[in-house]
C-alpha cells in the first residue's frame, strides 16, 4: 500500500479473479494474476467486488466488468488507479500524479506491455485508468515484439509506477469545469470579441497599473458619449475591479474603430496601440489634475550620438521614448541568449572607420568614430517590445522568430545609462507583466502573465479565465514573449498603490448601477415572461391620427408602430380587474367603456368581451381572440353612448358598428372620425348625412364611400347597397372623401396629389421612411429631415416633395445615394425610390439619401461634367482654384482651353511654351497626366485635377516633376517623412552642380541636363533592376516617372527595402555626417538585406548606395561624380564600390584645394540680407501656402 499525501492509491486489475498486489519501493505497486484466473461468464450486472487481504494489513478491491467477461467474446484487461482519501479530509482535496501500468511475464521481465498517463484525483474523480488496457487473448501468446506470452501458466505480474507531483498553484491538470476566476484569484477575464486578440491581455496589463487606473478615473467624462475611448476605458477598469464575471469590451472595440490607422492584423500593432492610446489620454488629460501622467509613467530619455575616437568631436541629439524595441538576433543573425545581451547590443557603439570615416568638419576632417544610442533616464514603467517578427522575402510574409530570450525577474538598468546619468541611484527594475504571443505570426493570439503586487502570485490572463501560475512558468515563456513590463523598484510603492471605491468617479458608478438595475429588471421580465402577456389598447385618439390600413400599426418593417397605451398584465388576472385599472389609468369610468379584441388575421374590433363571467382571465381572452398564444393581446377601447345603448336595447333589428376614416385630398392625409352604429337594412347613402353632421360639412355635401377590405383591396361602394348586403360586420372600416369637380381634380393633379383613397392607400402600402441629409456639412441652413415616401415614386415626384419641404426649386436639387451612411453615387434622374435606397425596411441607417442644391437645373447638370482644377504655380504652391461645367462630349484639351479663358492667376515665365499640363492625384499619389485627347465622359475623377505650366527640361524646372518626386518618395516612405526634408535634399542634389541653393523655389532658375541626370539616377536607384534601363533611356526625369509608374505593381519587395533605407537615411540626417558614415549605414543595411535572402545584384546595390549617399554631400564637387560616372561605358551599373569611394575622395580633395578660389568666384550664391546693426538675420524658410498634394 502506498500513501500519497495521506491518500491511499489502489490499482484495480479487472479480470475474472483476484490479483495479489503488494507495495514496493518508490511508488511501485506489484501483484500477480494467479493461475486460477479465468474469464467468468456468470458475473452479476454490477462490478464483481472481491475482498483480498494484502499481508494482513488492508483490504483491496479486485473488480471485473461483466461486459468484458462474456464467454466466447473479446475479453479486455482493464486497469484503474484509485485514489481514496481518509475520512477526515478537507473539502475540494486533490492529488496530481503520473502513473505507468505494466503487465509482464512472471518469469521474464523483458516481456511486458505498458501504458501510462497523468491525472488529477479528487472527490469527483477518484478512479482513473484504462478500460481497454489490452485484449486478454493477445497476452496469452507471443507476438512480433516478444517471444514469450505475457500471461504464462495463467500468471502475470502487474506493476504500477506512481509519481505524485507537488501542485504549487493548486490548479495543475485542472479541467476548469465550473471554474470561477473571481473566487479563485480575485480577478476576472475579458471576453474575446475577435480581431484584436492583443487587446484583452494588454488591457489587463494596464489595469494592473493602479497609478494609471487612478489617473484614468480622474479624466472628466461626465458628458462623454458612449463612443468615448476614455469613458469606455474607465468603465472596463471599474468592471474589472468590481465584477464577478468576465467583462465585455465590445464598446471599446467600437470606439477604437475611429483609429483607422490601427491595423489589428499587424504583429507590431501592440506598439502602435500604445502610441495612439498615449495620444488619446494626453489630449483628454490636458489642463486637468492628471495632466502629464502618461509621460511620467512611460516616457524616458535617450541620446543618439556620433563621437570621434581620436579627436574631441561629438554630435548628439536627445529624444523621448515611451518603449524600447529590442532585437532577438544580432546583425549576423545569431540569437541573443538573454535580455541583457539584447540591451547591451542596443547601446553598443558601432565603429565607423576605414573608408567609412566620419567627417568631423573642416577642423578635423575624416575621423574614426563611434555611433550609437544610450539611455539618459528610464521611466518608472518600462515597456520592452521584442521584435519577434521579421519579413521573409522568399515567402512574402511575416514569420515569427521562436528563438528563446531569457529574461530576469529583476533587472539592473544602470549599465545601459549614459555616463552623464546618475548611476548611484537605484536603477533596479522588477518584472511586473509579460505579454505572450501564441502561435504563428499570422495568428493574433495573445495572453499575459501579471504579478499585480510584489508579494502576490503570478497569474495568467487569457480570454477564458484567470489562473495562478508559478514564477518558473512565467520565465519559461521565453520563446513567445512579445512585450515585457518592468517597474522601477524605487517607484513601485507609488505605482502599485491601493485603489478604493473612493477613487472611482461617482458618475461612472451611477451609470453602471443604473444599467445593472435595467439589466436585472429585463432579466426578471424575461424569466417571468411566460407569466405575463403584453396588452395594447387602441383608443379613439389612436384611430384619429393613424395613417394606414386598419386601426393602428403594430408590427411593420417599413414604418414605426403606432403609439398606443401598453400594459404588462398577468395572464391569470381577471378581466374585470384589468378593465377597472385601465379605466382609472386612462381617465374613464369603468361603466362608460367597453373593450373589443382585435381579431386576427385582420385587426378589427368584433364582439365585445363579455362581462358577465366574473372568473374570465386575460389569458383566456387572448387565446380566444388571437391565432397564436405567443401574440400580444390587442383591444379596442369603445366609449359608450348612453342614447345609443338605450335605443339598441329597444330595437329588434341588428346594428353594426362601422369605423369611419376621412381622406383629406388637400392635406393628403387620413383621419379617423370614430364609429357609427347602423342597421343592417340601412343603405350606405344613409351614412352620408351622419358624417356631414359630425364633420360639420355643408348640408347636402356629396361624399364617395370606399370599403377597406384588405391591404391592396380598397373598393368604391354603391350608395344604394345596404350594409347587410355588403356583409359589413362590427369593426369594418369605411373611408370617405369629398366629391370634387373635374376642374378641382385637375388642379390637385398638377400638385402631384393622390386624388382618391385607392391611390393613397397604395402609397401607404409601399411607403418607406427616408432620411434626407445635406451632402456637404458647409451647406448653410440646410436641415436633416424624414419623409415617408412610396417606393413607387419617380425621381421627379420625390424631388417635388423634397423641394416643397426645403422651399427650393425641385429642378435644382440633386440626390446622392448612401453606402453605410456615407454619400456614394449621384442618382440619375430615372427609376423609383425603391431603386435609390439600400433597404425597403424602416432602417434609417440604410434609407438615407443626400441632397445638394445646384446653380443650374439638374437635367442640365447631368448633360455636363463638373470640373475642378487647382493651379500649381511658382514656388510649388496653390495659386488658384477653378470650378466650371463642361459638356460630357468635350475633351481634356477643351478643359485646358476653358481654363486659359477663365484664369486670372496664370502667368507664364519668360521663354515659356505657353502650354498647360493637366494631371490627377489619387490616394496621395500622382495618378495620370493627360495628353489632351481624352474625352471627359471617360475620365472618372474630374474634381481632383491639377494644372501647371508645361516647361521643357532645358529651360526651367518643372513643378510637376517635383510633385511627382515628392509623391513617389512619400509612397516609399509610408511612415511620413516630412516632404520639406526631401525637398531640401533634392535641392542639395541640384545645388551640387549649379551652386544655386534656391534652384527649385526660384522661378528664374533653370535646370539643365546635368541636374536632370541626377534626378534620373535617383529614380533608377529606387526601382527594380529590370526597370533601370527604362529609366536611363528616358529623355527626362519626368518621362522616367511616367514609365516606371506603369510597372509599380512589380515593386513590392523593393518598396519595403526603400522604406527601411529611407528611414535610416533621415534618422541619421545631421549637419556633421559625411560620406563615410552614410556609406557605412547604407552598406550595413544592405548587408542585412543580402543575408535575409533578398536578391539584389551588386550593380544595383552600388547604384543604390551612391544615389542615396549623394544627397548627404552638400558641396558642389560631387556634381562632377555624376558626369564622370555617366561618361563611363555602362554608367553606374559598371562602377565598383571601391572605385566609387575613390572617385568621391578625389573630388573632395580637389574641392578643398580650390576652396578659396571657389569661394571667391561663387558670387551667384544668394546671401542672407543683413540688418541695420550688421548682424545676420535668419529669415528661415518662406512661409507660402504649400500644395496640399505633397504636404502632411
TrEMBL record:
Q: Which GO terms describe its molecular function?
A: cysteine-type deubiquitinase activity
Q: Where is this region: Disordered?
A: 1152-1192
Renumbered to this chain, the signal peptide range is 1-23
Q: Which reaction does it catalyse?
A: Thiol-dependent hydrolysis of ester, thioester, amide, peptide and isopeptide bonds formed by the C-terminal Gly of ubiquitin (a 76-residue protein attached to proteins as an intracellular targeting signal)
Q: Which UniProt keywords apply?
A: Hydrolase, Protease, Signal, Thiol protease, Ubl conjugation pathway
What are its E.C. numbers? 3.4.19.12
Q: Which GO terms describe its biological process?
A: protein deubiquitination; proteolysis; regulation of protein stability
Spans of biased composition, class Polar residues? Answer: 1174-1192
Listed under GO cellular component are:
cytosol; nucleus
Q: Which InterPro entries match?
A: Papain-like_cys_pep_sf, Peptidase_C19, Peptidase_C19_UCH, TRAF-like, USP, USP7_ICP0-binding_dom, USP_C
**Per its UniProt entry, what is the enzyme's top EC class, as one word?**
hydrolase
Low complexity bias (residue ranges): 1157-1173
Question: Where does the sequence pass through the membrane?
Answer: none
Q: Where is the USP domain?
A: 188-489
- Which Pfam family is one of this chain's hits? USP7_ICP0_bdg
Q: What family, per the record?
A: Belongs to the peptidase C19 family.
Query: What is the name attached to this protein's record?
Result: ubiquitinyl hydrolase 1
Q: Which organism is it from?
A: Puccinia graminis f. sp. tritici
Amino acid at each position: 500500500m502506498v500513501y500519497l499525501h495521506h491518500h491511499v492509491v489502489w490499482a484495480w486489475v479487472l479480470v475474472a479473479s483476484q490479483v495479489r498486489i503488494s507495495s514496493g519501493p518508490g511508488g511501485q505497486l506489484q501483484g500477480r494474476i494467479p493461475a486460477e484466473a479465468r474469464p467468468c461468464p456468470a458475473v452479476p450486472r454490477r462490478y464483481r467486488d472481491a475482498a483480498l487481504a494484502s499481508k494482513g494489513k488492508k483490504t483491496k478491491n479486485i473488480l471485473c466488468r461483466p461486459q468484458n467477461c462474456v464467454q466466447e467474446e473479446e475479453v479486455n484487461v482493464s486497469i484503474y488507479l484509485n485514489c481514496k482519501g481518509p475520512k477526515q479530509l478537507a473539502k475540494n482535496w486533490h492529488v496530481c500524479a503520473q502513473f505507468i501500468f505494466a503487465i509482464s511475464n512472471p518469469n521474464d521481465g523483458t516481456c511486458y506491455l505498458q501504458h501510462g498517463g497523468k491525472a488529477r484525483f479528487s472527490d469527483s474523480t477518484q478512479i482513473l485508468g484504462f478500460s481497454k488496457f489490452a485484449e486478454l487473448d493477445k497476452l496469452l501468446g507471443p507476438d512480433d515484439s516478444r517471444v514469450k506470452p505475457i500471461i504464462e501458466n495463467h500468471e502475470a505480474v502487474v506493476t504500477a509506477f506512481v509519481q505524485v507531483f507537488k501542485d504549487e498553484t493548486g490548479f495543475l491538470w485542472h479541467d476548469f469545469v465550473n471554474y470561477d476566476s473571481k473566487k479563485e484569484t480575485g480577478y476576472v477575464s475579458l471576453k474575446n470579441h475577435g480581431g484584436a486578440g492583443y487587446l484583452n491581455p494588454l488591457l489587463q496589463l494596464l489595469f494592473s497599473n493602479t497609478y494609471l487606473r487612478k489617473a484614468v478615473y480622474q479624466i472628466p467624462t461626465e458628458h462623454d458619449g458612449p463612443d468615448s475611448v476614455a469613458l469606455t476605458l474607465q468603465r472596463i477598469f471599474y468592471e474589472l475591479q468590481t465584477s464577478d464575471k468576465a467583462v465585455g469590451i465590445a464598446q471599446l472595440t467600437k470606439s477604437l474603430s475611429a483609429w483607422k490607422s490601427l491595423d489589428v492584423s499587424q504583429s507590431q500593432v501592440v506598439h502602435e496601440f500604445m502610441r495612439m492610446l498615449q495620444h488619446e489620454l494626453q489630449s483628454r488629460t490636458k489642463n486637468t489634475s492628471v495632466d502629464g501622467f502618461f509621460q511620467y509613467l512611460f516616457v524616458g530619455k535617450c541620446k543618439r550620438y556620433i563621437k570621434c575616437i581620436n579627436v574631441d568631436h561629438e554630435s548628439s541629439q536627445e529624444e523621448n521614448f515611451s518603449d524600447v524595441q529590442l532585437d532577438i538576433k544580432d546583425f549576423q543573425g545569431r540569437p541573443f541568449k538573454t535580455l541583457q545581451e539584447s540591451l547591451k547590443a542596443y547601446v553598443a557603439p558601432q565603429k565607423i572607420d576605414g573608408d567609412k570615416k566620419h567627417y568631423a568638419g573642416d577642423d578635423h576632417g575624416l575621423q574614426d568614430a563611434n555611433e550609437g544610442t544610450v539611455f539618459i533616464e528610464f521611466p518608472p514603467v518600462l515597456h520592452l517590445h521584442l521584435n519577434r517578427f521579421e519579413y521573409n522575402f522568399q515567402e512574402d510574409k511575416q514569420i515569427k522568430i521562436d528563438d528563446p530570450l531569457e529574461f530576469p525577474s529583476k533587472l539592473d538598468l544602470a549599465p545601459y545609462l549614459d555616463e552623464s546619468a546618475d548611476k548611484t541611484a537605484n536603477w533596479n527594475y522588477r518584472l511586473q507583466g509579460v505579454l505572450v504571443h501564441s502561435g504563428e505570426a499570422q495568428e493574433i493570439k495573445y495572453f499575459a502573465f501579471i504579478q499585480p503586487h510584489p508579494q502576490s502570485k503570478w497569474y495568467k490572463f487569457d480570454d477564458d479565465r484567470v489562473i495562478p501560475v508559478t514564477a518558473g512558468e512565467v520565465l519559461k515563456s521565453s520563446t513567445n514573449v512579445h512585450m515585457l513590463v518592468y517597474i522601477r523598484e524605487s517607484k513601485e510603492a507609488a505605482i502599485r498603490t491601493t485603489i478604493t471605491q473612493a477613487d472611482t468617479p461617482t458618475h461612472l458608478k451611477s451609470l453602471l448601477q443604473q444599467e445593472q438595475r435595467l439589466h436585472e429588471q429585463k432579466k426578471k421580465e424575461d424569466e417571468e415572461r411566460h407569466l405575463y402577456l403584453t396588452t395594447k389598447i387602441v383608443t379613439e385618439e389612436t384611430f384619429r391620427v393613424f395613417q394606414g390600413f386598419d386601426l393602428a400599426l403594430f408590427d411593420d418593417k417599413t414604418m414605426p408602430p403606432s403609439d398606443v397605451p401598453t400594459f404588462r398584465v398577468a395572464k391569470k388576472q381577471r378581466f374585470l380587474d384589468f378593465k377597472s385599472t385601465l379605466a382609472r389609468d386612462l381617465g374613464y369610468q369603468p361603466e362608460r367603456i367597453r373593450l373589443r379584441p382585435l381579431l386576427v388575421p385582420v385587426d378589427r374590433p368584433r364582439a365585445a368581451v363579455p362581462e358577465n363571467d366574473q372568473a374570465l382571465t386575460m389569458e383566456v381572452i387572448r387565446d380566444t381572440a388571437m391565432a397564436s398564444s405567443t401574440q400580444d393581446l390587442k383591444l379596442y377601447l369603445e366609449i359608450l353612448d348612453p342614447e345609443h345603448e338605450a335605443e339598441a336595447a329597444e330595437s329588434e333589428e341588428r346594428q353594426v358598428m362601422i369605423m369611419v376614416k376621412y381622406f383629406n385630398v388637400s392635406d393628403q392625409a387620413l383621419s379617423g372620425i370614430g364609429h357609427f352604429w347602423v342597421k343592417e337594412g340601412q343603405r350606405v347613402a344613409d351614412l352620408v348625412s351622419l358624417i356631414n353632421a359630425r364633420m360639420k360639412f355643408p348640408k347636402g355635401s356629396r361624399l364617395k364611400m370606399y370599403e377597406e377590405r384588405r391591404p391592396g383591396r380598397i373598393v368604391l361602394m354603391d350608395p344604394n347597397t345596404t350594409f347587410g348586403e355588403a356583409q359589413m360586420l362590427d369593426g369594418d372600416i369605411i373611408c370617405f372623401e369629398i366629391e370634387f369637380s373635374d376642374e378641382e381634380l385637375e388642379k390637385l393633379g398638377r400638385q402631384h396629389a393622390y386624388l382618391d383613397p385607392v391611390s393613397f392607400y397604395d402609397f401607404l402600402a409601399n411607403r418607406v421612411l427616408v432620411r434626407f441629409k445635406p451632402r456637404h456639412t458647409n451647406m448653410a441652413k440646410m436641415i436633416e429631415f424624414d419623409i415617408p415616401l412610396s417606393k413607387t415614386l419617380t425621381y421627379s415626384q420625390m424631388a417635388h416633395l423634397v423641394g416643397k419641404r426645403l422651399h427650393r426649386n425641385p429642378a435644382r436639387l440633386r440626390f446622392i445615394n448612401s453606402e453605410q451612411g456615407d454619400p456614394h453615387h449621384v442618382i440619375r434622374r430615372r427609376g423609383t425610390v425603391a431603386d435609390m435606397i439600400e433597404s425597403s425596411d424602416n432602417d434609417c441607417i440604410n434609407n438615407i439619401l443626400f441632397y445638394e442644391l445646384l446653380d443650374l437645373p439638374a437635367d442640365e447638370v447631368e448633360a455636363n461634367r463638373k470640373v475642378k482644377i487647382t493651379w500649381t504655380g511658382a514656388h510649388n504652391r496653390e495659386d488658384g482654384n477653378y470650378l466650371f461645367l463642361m459638356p460630357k462630349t468635350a475633351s481634356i484639351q477643351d478643359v485646358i482651353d476653358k481654363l486659359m479663358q477663365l484664369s486670372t492667376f496664370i502667368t507664364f515665365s519668360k521663354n515659356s511654351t505657353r502650354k498647360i499640363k493637366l494631371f490627377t492625384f489619387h490616394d496621395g499619389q500622382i495618378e495620370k497626366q493627360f495628353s489632351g485627347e481624352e474625352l471627359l465622359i471617360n475620365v472618372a475623377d474630374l474634381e481632383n485635377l491639377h494644372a501647371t505650366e508645361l516647361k521643357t527640361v532645358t529651360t526651367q524646372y518643372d513643378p510637376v516633376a517635383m510633385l511627382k518626386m515628392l509623391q513617389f518618395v512619400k509612397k516609399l516612405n509610408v511612415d511620413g517623412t516630412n516632404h520639406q526634408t526631401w525637398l531640401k535634399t533634392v535641392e542639395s542634389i541640384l545645388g551640387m552642380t549649379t551652386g544655386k541653393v534656391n534652384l527649385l523655389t526660384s522661378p528664374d532658375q533653370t535646370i539643365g541636363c546635368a541636374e536632370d541626370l541626377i534626378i534620373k539616377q535617383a529614380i533608377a536607384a529606387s526601382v527594380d533592376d529590370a526597370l533601370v534601363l527604362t529609366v536611363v533611356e528616358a529623355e527626362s526625369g519626368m518621362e522616367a516617372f511616367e514609365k516606371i509608374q506603369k510597372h509599380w505593381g512589380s515593386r513590392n519587395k523593393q518598396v519595403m527595402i526603400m522604406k527601411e533605407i529611407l528611414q535610416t537615411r533621415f534618422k541619421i540626417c545631421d549637419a556633421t555626417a559625411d560620406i563615410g558614415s552614410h556609406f557605412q549605414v547604407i552598406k550595413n543595411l544592405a548587408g542585412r538585406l543580402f543575408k535575409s535572402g533578398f536578391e539584389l545584384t551588386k550593380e544595383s546595390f552600388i547604384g543604390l548606395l551612391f544615389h542615396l549617399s549623394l544627397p548627404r554631400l552638400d558641396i558642389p564637387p560631387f556634381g562632377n561624380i555624376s558626369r564622370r560616372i555617366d561618361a563611363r561605358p555602362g554608367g553606374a551599373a559598371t562602377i565598383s564600390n571601391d572605385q566609387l569611394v575613390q572617385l568621391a575622395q578625389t573630388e573632395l580633395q580637389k574641392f578643398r584645394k580650390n576652396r578659396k578660389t571657389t569661394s571667391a568666384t561663387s558670387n551667384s550664391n544668394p546671401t542672407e540680407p543683413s540688418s541695420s546693426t550688421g548682424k545676420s538675420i535668419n529669415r528661415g524658410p518662406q512661409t507660402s501656402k504649400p500644395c496640399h498634394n505633397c504636404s502632411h
